[in-house]
Amino acid sequence: MKLTKPIAYRIYSILGFAFLFAYLLSFLFEGQVLYGLLEHFNADASLYITGAIAAHFAGLFTGGFVSKNIGSARKVMIFAMGLCVLLSIPFYFPPSLLWAIGLIAAGYASGCAVAAWGFFLKAFTPKNERLRSCADVLILSNLLMIAINVTSTLWSPFAALSLSLICVPLGCFFIRLLPVALESKTPSSVRNNESLRSDHPLWILALFVFIITINSGLMYQVINPAFDHLTGLVSWYWAVPYILALIILRSIPLNKKRSSVLYVGMAMIMAAFIAFMLLGRKETEYLIIDTLMLGACGIFDLFWWSILGEMLDHTNSSAKVFGIGLSANVLGVLCGGVLGMVVTSAGLPGAEIAVIALCVVCVTLVLLPPLNRRLILLLKSHTYLAAYDNMSQSQQTDIIHKIKTLDPLTVREKEVLQLILSGKSNREIAGTLYISENTVKTHIRNIFSKYDVSSRVELVSTLLKNQTSE
Question: In the chain, is it the N or the C terminus that has fewer CB atoms within a 10 Å radius of its CB?
């Protein structure tokens, strides 16, 4: 059966990124191949691992400033992938300065490449299919990682390194098959003002991602070393619960029950650390702990990957949004890893370490409800702004008169309100109306009071949600 171009492009995009991500998971980003090579040469792992993660975070965070459109994003991905192969060659030889340089440079380049894929996710996957595309990428890359990990354990880390490097040109091949002329349109209200500035949903999501992934860093540094003696089992089973969670969630619409799924993940993380505190270190105990922990990781990863996919429709800087969103994940792992190193070096028993991890989980539980509500409201507001941008001038004017206020708006307040609905910031409003920012803030406070709302997000939602549902 011949595939249509949209379907083929979507598959090429998924395959290209999945092969790159398999290389990251198996080698560069705390991968089993890297640990196997470090162990083979009896090298100090902590410095190399921390440097690679920090560089990857920097690449994700700044990658959006390099990839300005889908054409430059493809160039960034192809160049970065070629650079990663070149920088990985020194790992066939004994440790040297080239190892540190290679990990840091490849970590940064791969971060830029991952961020650049945001343009391809937006361009080649319809909005209602992005959750499945993200799940497909994570499932395929983790299956490839398992095959590489088993090769490293049962055969040789050098053979596994070769397999991980083969993935990179394969990914590059599929990325090169994608066209660069296709560019998704973004509403002008969003182009004029990428977000609601201080209420940007990306920063709210990033805060939540950062806090929850501290537990992942703790897991790498505390739970995984406790089962080092189960090398064969760990090499193939470690990511299996993660993949199963993704397969299950891929078929379930998360739009209406997203928060309930998050609570399931939180409960699984708590149960994992409690089990680590109470159970032994044999095969059965490992299966229980890993199933709970990695299953929860699958839930959370798909949650924020799919949210980032939704956000791409509300920005003209897809690489920036995608990269910064995922950088919060890496930063959480980095901070959790440092915390794990500290508590491990302090000689704390497993029970005390589990208590520390549970405290982090409890903080996340407290933050989860308000963050989730705020995030949903912000995403809805972006949708309303896009709908407003497509309305006629008369429809836009009718909106302001349609919703009753506690007191009538002044002429100037109506002007300010129309500019708010156009997506403009306080500074842009001040420039348009030739007034000071303080005066703009005063008008906005008055508008909030008259509509009985407390933020721009609530204001936009109040004004536009009834209009867009008609």
Answer: N
